[in-house]
Specification:
Blueprint lengths: L1 E2 L4 H18 L25 E4 L5 E2 L2 E4 L13 E3 L5 E4 L14 H4 L4 E5 L4 E2 L3 E3 L3 E5 L27 H9 L13 H25 L3 H4 L9 H16 L1 H15 L6 E4 L1 H9 L5 E11 L7 E14 L12 H7 L2 E14 L2 E12 L2 E13 L3 E12 L7 E2 L4 E10 L3 E11 L19 H9 L8 H5 L7 E10 L4 E9 L4 E7 L4 E5 L2 H13 L5
Length: about 550
């Protein structure tokens, strides 16, 4: 991966040429990079520096560093960048309006956003030589930065260790429904919400590091080259070697996704939770588990936008660049060797039905060798008090040769209401499991969701809601293998269910009540004679019923 070479003159010449190349190409279709002049490590740090640090495996010369204000880990127009010098140094000032694209910009905000290092082919690792395989590193902020320019941020170094908890960003974005944030609003409320979520998770992570390994964040953000810490140097090199081995897989994944949606979709590749402990405890690894995620919503074309989502977990990457038990690192094999694999591809529209977001999705999922897919249609409306959703979901089994079993699941027509409150969310659902070919409750259930009568289909779903007291009369309409389920769940603000009750009719007449004490679930199942009354009061005490 590296060609050993040590020549200061050639290194500086390379950096100058790279800077000229990036500047010359900035006016094309891609983002315009704001290239900042860099200083030598011996120059005292200016008090006007908003952000300052080093890119380290060895010190990386010729890497592009940018502040990711909108949390998508991609450099967008308006996000300034810098080029690292021969000692890995980068810095940002606002002396020439570098941050003018960001509304309500503050030093604190700039210091509280991720920093990304794109290490290109041809950059120089001053310890290991020229780099012939690109890779990325990340600085995940662990705390809100100070607004003071009299002191530099204490954790500005970027290394393989400062991105170990990269998944907290994707977790945070999912917690806020993958909200799209513009660069201009990179210091706004949505961006701050994600930031605060990440801070809370990194605090938990540091606590775990201290208790399990006696390691603090000061260790992770340290300049281990200057400290001459041989163990950390070796561990960093190991992580980078594995990151570079993922490059062929990332390329194949990019090509595959682009063929599906017609656009380039950025992916995020990071070391899994289970592997973090291995990296910290052991510099010599023959394999490493990693996760991949991608999320994309395209431009509105004819009232619809393409949608794509990918989530994989715990795929083993071997030291020789293969997956699992020796398979080539490509997208097809990723499906087989991930412990969890999920993709969603579809379209979303805010104009197909007035007042509703309308979407259709084909989802494929493989979990521990069980394969399934479904295709669904969803209408969603949200106001200050309620989130209302209507669904049709068809489930189908998928068989992948000799490594997958079929998950047989029914077709569901579902109506959901979520009542929002300051300290909790109250969720109610009414679900009918139907046989589309014979159903008398939902006749003519559509099985293809593109180019249909979306308003008429919504009306069909809205017309099948029954009250709890109507279950007996509904039974006469149910066909073989059809059933009705009613449920109510209470969530706290973190999304954790702390109480739920559900009733299924007539497949089995039971009431299941589950409560959460913060650590374990307690489940109480009523017998047949009492189930109706036990469930009724809790479930029906909701607006949506």
């Amino acid at each position: 991966m590296y060609i050993n070479f040590n020549g200061a003159t050639m290194t500086r010449l390379y950096t100058i040429l790279l800077t000229l190349l990036i500047t010359a190409c900035g006016g094309g279709a891609g983002p315009t990079l704001v290239t900042l002049e860099v200083q030598s490590a011996s120059t005292p740090a200016s008090p006007s520096y908003w952000l300052y640090g080093k890119a380290i495996d060895g010190y990386i010369d010729g890497a592009t560093v940018f502040i990711d204000f909108n949390w998508n880990l991609i450099q967008d127009q308006g996000e300034p960048s810098a080029i690292t010098d021969s000692e890995g140094i980068y810095y940002f000032t606002n002396d020439n309006g570098e941050f003018d694209s960001i509304n309500n910009i503050t030093v604190s905000c700039a210091r509280s956003r991720p920093v990304v290092v794109n290490v290109p082919v041809g950059a120089v690792d001053t310890t290991r030589g020229y780099i012939d395989t690109a890779f990325d590193m990340y600085l995940i902020p662990a705390e809100r930065g100070s607004d003071s320019l009299t002191a530099l941020p204490s954790r500005g170094n970027i290394s393989p260790f400062t991105g170990l908890f990269l998944e907290y960003i994707t977790d945070a974005k999912q917690a806020y429904n993958n909200v799209t944030i513009s660069v201009e609003e990179g210091c706004g409320a949505d961006a701050d919400n994600i930031s605060n979520y990440v801070f809370s998770k990194t605090a938990e992570f540091e606590s775990s590091l201290i208790s399990n390994y006696s390691i603090t964040f000061d260790d992770l953000y340290d300049d281990f080259i200057a400290s001459d810490n041989a163990e950390w140097i070796s561990r960093a090199e190991t992580i980078v070697d594995f990151l570079q081995l993922l490059d062929p897989l990332k390329a194949d994944l990019s090509n595959t996704i682009e063929s599906m949606v017609g656009e380039t979709v950025p992916q995020l590749v990071y070391i899994s939770d289970t592997a973090i402990g291995q990296v910290i405890a052991n510099a010599e690894l023959n394999a490493l588990a990693f996760n991949m995620r991608a999320h994309f919503t395209g431009a509105d074309i004819g009232g619809w936008s393409n949608y794509f989502f990918l989530n994989t977990s715990e795929t083993t990457l071997n030291k020789d660049g293969t997956l699992g038990t020796g398979y080539a690192a490509n997208y097809a094999n990723l499906k087989q060797h991930a412990s969890k694999y999920e993709t969603q591809i579809g379209g979303v529209s805010t104009s197909a039905v007035i007042d509703y977001s309308t979407s259709y999705t084909i989802r494929e999922e493989i979990i521990d060798g069980v394969c399934a897919n479904d295709y669904g249609l969803k209408y969603m409306k949200e106001d200050d008090t309620y989130i209302t959703e209507y669904h049709i979901t068809h489930h189908n089994g998928l068989v992948y040769e000799d490594y997958c079993t079929i998950a047989n699941l029914p077709t569901n027509v579902m109506i959901e209401y979520t009542q929002k409150a300051d300290n909790r969310n109250d969720h109610y659902s009414f679900t009918i499991s139907v046989d589309p070919s014979v159903s008398q409750i939902v006749p003519n259930v559509p099985v293809v969701f593109s180019d249909i009568d979306y308003n008429g289909t919504l009306g069909t779903i809205q017309g099948v809601v029954y009250s709890y007291d109507e279950l007996d009369s509904l039974q006469t309409l149910l066909q073989a293998n059809e059933f009705v389920s009613l449920s109510r769940s209470l969530y706290d603000n973190s999304g954790t269910v702390y109480q739920q009750t559900y009733y299924v009719y007539p497949t089995y007449t039971t009431c299941l009540e589950r409560t959460w004490d913060g650590n374990v679930w307690t489940t109480v199942e009523s017998d047949t004679s009492n189930s109706y009354n036990d469930c009724r009061e809790f479930i029906t005490n909701f607006y949506g019923e």
